[in-house]
């Protein structure tokens, strides 16, 4: 086994660019999945089954099919329908949509964990429906679910390399490009592999600390 | 879509199913070995198993696949057939998630059960095989169902390496027809159908195992939701 430190130092500038793109995708994807997930979770609580049923089917479908195929779908089919976005935007949207079907379950569990007494108190105080949600239920529910949401941010981080297939140059995309140009595969791939392990391990330590503070 | 193209898709389905079967067998073996090792009494065994879990859960499955396909042949001279390379990468990655499921279920067994085994003079292996596992395995099934679906979704990644699975055949069809909406819709539906069948299978397995351990089967989908964090996260819990 040959290990060439020069290849590593040549790759590092590329690596930092790739990391930046990965973090951009992650930020956009998280934002989208947090908001969309909450929307799904709230829609699933509407009394009408004409809303719940379609939302349930669609989210189940998105959750049980590969993100990779969804990426291809959005990347190739949307332009056919006359909608063109940048590869990065398409990728962030796909990843956000995919993970919103996971975060909706987290929100649901968080909302269900709010004690019934809170609902009854809101009714007793004659709070309007909107106010019950925004001032009583959601603040308590969201506080509980932050660690679980953070979990999905890490899961999303590990799925960002897939965006390589729709020409986004994130970490793995850069590593592949570098490998093909310099015929050195071992170093760049190992560097990003270690980077993923380090980032997700540090993030999980951070999450555990957050969990101890938030969830009592 | 002509019948020739459908044949291509069917061959893709076959490759995906093969990968799924081999990958899930390897992942199950890895989960049980590593999961049991994480409850071992020697700290070094626990440490090594924990290290394995952190490393393979920490990295991305796609990066892992690239590593197995490109770095193993160059660095160690191990050139694997694509099917085995894909199985190895998927099995090792998803096995790391599975080991967390096994560990959780083993720890959830009432300690009195193990103590009972000790009092009756069972060896550690007998305790595991005859007392702990029969009670722990039914509890693992909902989580393993989640993991199986994740593995199914993971098999699509090998198409990036040019393996002719379902996703790869979809790309070929797209290039042949110069239109994508139809074929990608079909492919998504096929993946969904496979996932649906797997879920049904796992539900019946759970029912049978729980009956064998003298327990009521709960509502399967609710149990799956509760345990989802084990298969998707790096720790932490759902609410």
UniProtKB/TrEMBL annotation, chain A:
Localized where?
A: Cell membrane
Q: Name one GO molecular function term.
A: transmembrane transporter activity
Topology within the bilayer: Multi-pass membrane protein
InterPro entries attached to this UniProt entry: AA_ABC_transptr_permease_3TM, ArtM/GltK/GlnP/TcyL/YhdX-like, Ectoine_EhuD, MetI-like, MetI-like_sf
Which PROSITE patterns does the protein's record reference? ABC_TM1
User: Which residue positions does the secretion signal occupy?
Assistant: none
Alphabetically ordered keywords of this record: Amino-acid transport, Cell membrane, Membrane, Transmembrane, Transmembrane helix, Transport
Q: Where are the transmembrane segments?
A: 20-43, 81-99, 189-210
Question: Ranges for the ABC transmembrane type-1 domain?
Answer: 19-207
* Record carries keyword Amino-acid biosynthesis: no
* Any GO CC annotation of this UniProt entry: ATP-binding cassette (ABC) transporter complex
Q: Which GO terms describe its biological process?
A: amino acid transport
Q: Which NCBIfam families match?
A: ectoine_ehuD (TIGR03003), HEQRo_perm_3TM (TIGR01726)
The text of the family note is: Belongs to the binding-protein-dependent transport system permease family.
Q: Please state what the protein is called.
A: Ectoine/hydroxyectoine ABC transporter permease subunit EhuD
The species is Streptomyces cellostaticus
Automatic annotation (TrEMBL), chain B:
Q: Which GO terms describe its molecular function?
A: transmembrane transporter activity
Annotated keywords: Amino-acid transport, Cell membrane, Membrane, Transmembrane, Transmembrane helix, Transport
Q: Which InterPro entries match?
A: AA_ABC_transptr_permease_3TM, ArtM/GltK/GlnP/TcyL/YhdX-like, Ectoine_EhuC, MetI-like, MetI-like_sf
Q: Which Gene Ontology CC terms are recorded? A: ATP-binding cassette (ABC) transporter complex
Q: Is the keyword Transmembrane assigned to this protein? A: yes
**Membrane-spanning segments:** 12-37, 49-70, 183-201
Coiled-coil annotation reads none
Key word Membrane present in the record?
yes
Which compartments is it annotated to reside in?
Cell membrane
Major localisation? membrane
Its record classes its membrane topology as: Multi-pass membrane protein
Tell me which residues make up the ABC transmembrane type-1 domain. 13-202
Q: Which GO terms describe its biological process?
A: amino acid transport
Please report which protein family the annotation says this sequence is part of. Belongs to the binding-protein-dependent transport system permease family.
Cite the NCBIfam families for this sequence: ectoine_ehuC, HEQRo_perm_3TM
The name this protein goes by in its record: Ectoine/hydroxyectoine ABC transporter permease subunit EhuC
């Amino acid at each position: 086994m040959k290990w060439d430190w020069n290849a590593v130092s040549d790759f590092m500038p590329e690596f930092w660019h790739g990391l930046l793109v990965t973090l951009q995708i992650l930020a956009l994807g998280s934002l989208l999945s947090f908001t969309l997930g909450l929307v799904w979770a709230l829609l699933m609580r509407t009394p009408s089954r004409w809303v719940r049923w379609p939302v349930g089917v669609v989210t189940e479908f998105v959750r049980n099919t590969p993100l990779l195929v969804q990426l291809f779908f959005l990347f190739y089919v949307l332009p056919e329908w006359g909608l063109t976005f940048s590869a990065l935007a398409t990728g962030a949207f796909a990843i956000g949509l995919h993970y919103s079907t996971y975060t909706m379950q987290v929100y649901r569990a968080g909302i269900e964990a709010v004690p019934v007494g809170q609902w009854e108190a809101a009714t007793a105080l004659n709070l309007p429906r909107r106010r019950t949600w925004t001032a009583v239920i959601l603040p308590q529910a969201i506080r509980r679910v932050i660690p679980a949401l953070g979990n999905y941010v890490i899961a999303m981080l590990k799925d960002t390399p897939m965006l390589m297939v729709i020409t986004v140059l994130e970490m793995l995309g850069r590593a592949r490009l570098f490998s093909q140009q310099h015929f050195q595969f071992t170093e760049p791939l190992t560097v990003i592999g270690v980077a993923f392990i380090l980032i997700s391990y540090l993030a999980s330590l951070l999450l555990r600390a957050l969990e101890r503070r938030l969830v009592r | 879509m002509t019948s020739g193209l459908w044949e291509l898709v069917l061959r893709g389905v076959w490759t995906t199913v093969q990968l799924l079967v081999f990958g899930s067998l390897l992942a199950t073996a890895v989960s049980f070995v590593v999961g049991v090792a994480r409850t071992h009494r020697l700290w070094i065994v626990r440490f090594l198993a924990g290290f394995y879990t952190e490393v393979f859960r920490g990295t991305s499955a796609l990066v892992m696949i690239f590593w197995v396909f490109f770095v193993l042949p160059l660095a160690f001279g191990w050139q694997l057939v694509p099917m085995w390379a894909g199985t190895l990468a998927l099995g090792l990655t998803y096995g790391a998630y599975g080991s967390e499921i096994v560990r959780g279920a083993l720890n959830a067994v009432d300690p009195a059960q193990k103590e009972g085994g000790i009092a009756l003079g069972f060896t550690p292996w007998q305790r595991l095989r005859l007392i702990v596992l029969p009670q722990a395995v039914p509890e693992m099934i909902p989580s393993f169902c989640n993991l199986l679906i994740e593995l199914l979704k993971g098999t699509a990644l090998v198409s990036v390496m040019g393996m002719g699975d379902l996703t790869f055949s979809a790309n070929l069809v797209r290039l042949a027809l110069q239109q994508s909406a139809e074929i990608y819709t079909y492919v998504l539906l096929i993946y969904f159908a496979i996932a649906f069948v797997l879920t049904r299978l796992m539900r019946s397995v759970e029912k049978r195992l729980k009956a064998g351990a003298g327990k009521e089967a709960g509502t399967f989908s609710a149990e799956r939701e509760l345990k989802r964090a084990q298969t998707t996260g790096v720790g932490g819990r759902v609410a």
